[in-house]
Amino acid sequence: MRTVPGAPLRLTFQRKLLLASAAVLLPVMVLLSVDLVEDARMTRKTLLDAQRLTAHAVAVQVTESFEAAIDLGWALANDPLVRTLNPKLLDAHLLQLTGHHTRFSSVGVYDAQGRNRGWGDPEMPAEPRLWIGDRPYFQKVMATNTPVVSEVLELRRPVRAGLIVAVPIRDARGQPMGVVDVVMETHLLAQRYLSARHHSQQEILLVDPAGRLAFHTHSPTLPFERGLAFASFPPLRAALEGRAMRIDQATDPLTQEDILGAFVPTPRYDWAVGVMASRESAMAPLTQRLYLKLGAVIGIALFSGMLAVVLSRRQTRPVRQLQALAHALGQGDMARRVHIQTGDEMEELGEAFNQMATHIAQRQREVDALRAEAEDHARQLAAIIASVPDAILLASPDGRLFDANPAGLRLLSAEDRSHLDMHLADHLQRSRIRHADGRPLSLEELPLVRALRGETFSDLELRMCSLTGEEYLMSVNGAPVRDATGRIILGEVVLHDITGRKKIEEERTRLLAREQALARIGQALVREVEFERITSVASEQCRQALGADAVGLWLAHPDPSRFTRVAAHGFSSTSREDVEELTPCELPPGAVQDEAIQLIDAQGGGDVCFPGHALAKREGFASVVLIPLHSRGRMVGVLASFSREPLDLSTSEREFHTTVGQLVAVAIEKARLFQEVREALRLREEFMSAAAHELKTPVTTLQTWADILTWKEPGSERQRKGLAAISRGARRLGRLVEHLFTALRMTPGLTKLERDRVDLRALLAEHVASLSRSTEHPIHLVAEETPIIEADRQRMGEVLAHLLENALRYSPPARPIEVRLGCAGNEAVVSVHDHGPGIPPERQPHVFEPLYEPLPSGAPGYAGMAGLGLHLSSRIIEAHGGRIWLESTPGEGTTFCFSLPLHGVEGRRHANA
């Protein structure tokens, strides 16, 4: 079989049959593998279960040995002869006893100080006597008065490894008076449990609570110093903690062999027993069975393979004939046929192939006709693409630009398609393609590369240059071209030139920005009234609106011989001081006489003498635009705009600069007028203050003498009427003077309230009661229960007095005055209603102005009095954060109302709660 480099691997029919035979054998191999794995698992489980049972049996026997030693110790401890602690009697008695108990090496009796009082070891003499007072097990027995099984020790007599079971000897009071030691040598324990093994390769070990080996059947002569070899062995540590463990693979710390085994704790004692075996010896039967099964499978596989080869060759012969026919048909030989006589489906397949060859010959003629038609359609499609005004570029999957329509060839300055064959990296470099903002474009961001990656995108704006250096702004749409299987075969992009459209949009944006800049300047200058703030805001906003790098503002003095700088933005501190003042002779001629905008080349020469030349050169400015500021026929200042780029102002730009200058000039004139108004108000307040002080003394004197003459000097009726008129006029004038003083104290910025907790209902009742005693008008008070408010009591009393006196002044005789107090939301509301003539609608907006008369002269109910009471009331209420208003209908009376907030008192009340 021939293979094409890079093409996927193809299998012949014969190889497929062989693979099918192998597939039939595959389940057999899988079953064998499963059987082997399961056999190994069961073998390991059986071995581990047997070792676990052995370990439990040994653990029970170890526990029984400890219990037997304890029983022997108790028997000796209760023996009257032992309780005498007489060495002469005890040595022989213990020797005789040791001969009857071969399970134990020796027996010793010790007094409370740990001195030996009796020794029962036939191989070792009693002298010299041992002292065990320093042994931990001895100290524990004497402290707990209970039997103790020691850890594995290195015995002193004889010197070998062993363990001791110690039982207390109690006196008549039950207190320990000595100890009976039953000594068990570890090598004797190991010999006792050898019979518990299932086979000779199985090893048994015993460790004490500290992890020291009591014995290890593989190393019966293990030195005492190596007894801690298993102290850190994890399975044994788990068994010492009371958890039985089975392991199927581990390393023996002594022999370094791979082992499997079981480890269990001893009942009622914190010792552990382990039963282990070498994995190699334990798994030997399993290995033998594995070799036998593998031999059988290999034989079956060889026989099946040979049989499959023979059968596959016989079955593939007709297939090769069909293959030859197919190749002939593919090469255009429509006359070739096959002759297969197998008597099965393969013969039917050969007849089907012959029929197919006949049909293919017929279809070939039809395809030739369709090809001619398709070529005609392709020529039409090419003509349509050639007529598209947008550039169309195509890239191959290997990353090369290879085709374009005529518009694309013109864009790339290529004569024909032969000049297009280039790598996309070269195309990126040649056309200098960048982002719309001028940033470099990487190869991965190139539209054709993105299309080849499978991305679809639209309206992507990029910049590119032609070979002549002309720059275009293009809108790019791209997508991959796929075949019927979905594989990407081309990358396509369509480029539309939007350079002209963008210029129009940028011009619209620039004009809109100018309009918005004018609006911002107007809003900023309308909101400000202070002269210094006006000049600062004007220069700052003009810098943004004009797109300048720096802006300076010089204002003309009343003396037009000089101009003073009042604001500057964008200069260094040293440069601002260089042009502090200008004189008209220093300005260009047209800036003053013709009121025209002047454009100055700050870096060049020329005859124009402008002191900003040195400043501009030092700061790096290339152009200066001088805008004269005129208002009401006179020059109020000069606005200078500095730019680091050379400027060439068009007619529209000059008009825009002129409009900005007019706005600034109007704002400066407004600020000056505001200063004049404020000065006039200051002079008016000084005059009112002086007039009030000058009037107070003579008015007081006049009223005092009028009262004295009325009370002390009898006179004619005419004199008394005259004195009464003088007294009333003096009192009225005195109230007016007092109102003037109050108005001066209530000047904005000077108001100071002495706030305190005020019961508005009680205050209102007090004033109503006071006025009711001196008037013929009935005053009706309707007051709801209202919270205590925080207010200036004296000022609020003045407000109530002014409103009540105003109602009495304009009410007809004997008509009632109605006063109400209530709550509306978070406000306390007070209203005073009279049945007077009412106030005309056109005069109502001015009622709270100073010295304003609610009724015109000669109108019904006109009182002929102009005061400050209502004006002062409105100022006091506003100072308290409230509001005051009136409701009036001519002929039906007037109601004056005011409200005060309750939130201050209520908030503290909730906080205190």
UniProtKB/TrEMBL annotation:
- What is the name listed in the Swiss-Prot or TrEMBL entry for this protein? histidine kinase
Q: Does the keyword Cell membrane apply?
A: yes
Question: What is the superkingdom listed in this entry's lineage?
Answer: Bacteria
Name the InterPro entries on file.
BphY/WalK/GraS-like, dCache_1, GAF, GAF-like_dom_sf, HAMP_dom, HATPase_C_sf, HATPase_dom, His_kinase_dom
Molecular functions per Gene Ontology:
ATP binding; phosphorelay response regulator activity; phosphorelay sensor kinase activity; protein kinase activator activity
- Domain PAC per the UniProt entry, residue ranges: 458-510
Q: Could you tell me what reaction this enzyme catalyses?
A: ATP + protein L-histidine = ADP + protein N-phospho-L-histidine
The HAMP domain extends over 313-365
Q: Where in the cell is it found?
A: Cell membrane
Pfam families in alphabetical order:
dCache_1 (PF02743), GAF (PF01590), HAMP (PF00672), HATPase_c (PF02518), HisKA (PF00512), PAS_4 (PF08448)
- Give the main EC class: transferase
- What GO terms in the biological process aspect are recorded for it? osmosensory signaling via phosphorelay pathway
Topology of the protein relative to the lipid bilayer: Multi-pass membrane protein
Q: Name one GO cellular component term.
A: plasma membrane
Q: Please report the stretch or stretches of sequence annotated as the Histidine kinase domain.
A: 690-904
| Taxon lineage | Bacteria, Pseudomonadati, Myxococcota, Myxococcia, Myxococcales
- Signal peptide feature range: none
